[in-house]
Amino acid sequence: MFIDTRSLPDLSKFETDVAIIGGGPAGISIARTFDGTSTRVCLIESGGLTPEAQTQALYDGESVGIAYPVIAHRLRFLGGSSNHWGGFCRPLDAIDFEQREWVPHSGWPFSKETLLPYYDRASEVVEVAPPRFEDKTYWERVTGEPLPDSVTGRMQVRFVHFSPPTHFGERYGSELEQSKNIEVLLNANVVNIAAVGEGRHVDQLQLQTLSGLRHSVRARVYVLATGGLENARMLLLSNDSMPHGLGNQHDMVGRFFMEHPHLSGFAELVVADILRLPGIYRTRVFADGRYATAAFNPSESFLRERRLLNCTFMAGQAGDYHSNVAPNWERAGLHRDMLEAARHFLIDDRRAAILPSTLLGHWLGLGCACEQVPNPDSRVTLSTQRDALGLQRLRLDWRLTEQDRLSALEHMRSLVMEIGALDIGRVFNSGEYDSAWPQVVGGGSHHMGTTRMHDDPRQGVVDRHCKVHGIDNLFVAGSSVFPTGGASNPTLTLVALALRLGDHLKSLVG
């Protein structure tokens, strides 16, 4: 059932079993686990069914570290940021869950095996099932092309699936609207998570509409699922019983903000014969109802040997070089010169005879998404600025370290070696990251770590079941609980964690 809280009488009260704050992928996934049961669920969404500028403005905030337009990376209506999701899906690697001695503050409370059954379910939710993330034999069969193994041992092939992408509000909205036991409160902003007993028990949620109406929700258990930035902000704002915010008794809320630095334009792959690079490495291929592409990832043995962070490289065909067309930028001239000088090394006579006489070769753009080391000084705090509801806006201080840069640089060099060893082509490196991070670093809208998971309350905000330390009925869902971020897009993992949390909550309220 959908309820627009702007149309209710002022001071309306709701009683439920499970209250979920946030109608994005995590919140909707948890709500759906209860559909058709006897458990009453209230899903609270700040926005409506379509974007509205006044509601979106509530996401604005300060960026005082690496320049980061916080409002541009999130959407505030049903479905949340899935409404501009690119659909990239891949689970974290097993090593990402480990406590690695060379990665400070690393280690999840459980191994990847714990999430495997939930990854399968999450693949269905985001519509990429059946998952084939590591099955090279399968992809060779469906594409009809042999896929090369690593020559250097530094890299391995992994496969990224692409969700349609699943916009959770559109895809699951009618299901939620028709549910007998789920109420979806729209245009309802949670302005306070009110706790009692010295902050040990959440008593109610206080809501406010932008039109000034105030409502409340009482539940047996509460789930905060408003995203990797807003989860921390909401806990810090809820400070009426705990002066520094809920779950923040050890000053951990908001710390360890992580992104995946996206290093685009760091290099170009130049090939004389495009068929030397299998199609799945340079474009999306369709099989079994979904698209996928291959990615170069560092091997686990190489990560351990060189004590590196994780990383993912992907290539995309970007253009051609012809002898009768002048290059339009300086490095394109270098590429063309190399192709002309070394063409007889890079392409055999049989292929050369059937290709257009003017075609020299092709260039492919390379993209890189890097793991960021958990850094307690990279964090979310509260700003002195206030939003339309009178709440303090967030203040983001995103920081990267030399360990992050040097790890990425090592992987770039490894990729150059691998491409050369496979005799696919040549890589031209821009050198942009050789001495320092550039002034502007892009991210993937992957907000992680600000309410990190750890069994020790001095080192994390939530425990292995995503319950906030020191509070008996408040849980957190989403990528903010990730202790480390790996180099995979976080949506599939956060949905898997949400499904796991849904099952755990059933054991508490069922």
Question: How would you describe this structure to a colleague?
Answer:
This protein is α/β, with parallel strands linked by helices and 510 residues long. It has helices at 25-33, 53-56, 112-125, 136-143, 168-178, 230-237, 300-306, 330-346, 349-354, 402-421, 491-509, and strands at 2-4, 13-15, 18-21, 41-44, 61-63, 88-89, 155-162, 182-186, 189-196, 201-208, 214-218, 221-224, 267-271, 285-287, 290-298, 311-322, 359-370, 379-386, 392-397, 426-429, 474-476. The strands form five sheets. The chain has a six-stranded parallel β-sheet with strand order 1-8-4-3-12-21. A four-stranded mixed β-sheet has the order 2-11-10-9. It has a four-stranded antiparallel β-sheet with strand order 6-7-15-14, sandwiched between helices. Helix 1 (25-33) runs parallel beside helix 11 and helix 3 (112-125) packs across helix 11. The two termini are 21 Å apart.
* Contiguous helical run count: 11
The amount of helix comes to 10-25%
Mean of residue pLDDT values: 93
**Which regions have little confidence, pLDDT < 50, spanning 5+ residues?**
none
> Looking at the structure, what is the overall shape?
elongated
Question: How many E strands?
Answer: 21
Biggest pleated sheet: 6 strands, parallel
Question: How far apart, in Å, are the first and last alpha carbons?
Answer: 21 Å
Radius of gyration, Cα only, in angstroms?
24 Å
Secondary structure elements and pairings:
Elements: E1 2-4, E2 13-15, E3 18-21, H1 25-33, E4 41-44, H2 53-56, E5 61-63, E6 88-89, H3 112-125, H4 136-143, E7 155-162, H5 168-178, E8 182-186, E9 189-196, E10 201-208, E11 214-218, E12 221-224, H6 230-237, E13 267-271, E14 285-287, E15 290-298, H7 300-306, E16 311-322, H8 330-346, H9 349-354, E17 359-370, E18 379-386, E19 392-397, H10 402-421, E20 426-429, E21 474-476, H11 491-509
Parallel strand pairs: 1-8, 2-11, 3-4, 3-12, 4-8, 5-19, 12-21
Antiparallel strand pairs: 6-7, 7-15, 9-10, 10-11, 13-17, 13-20, 14-15, 16-17, 18-19
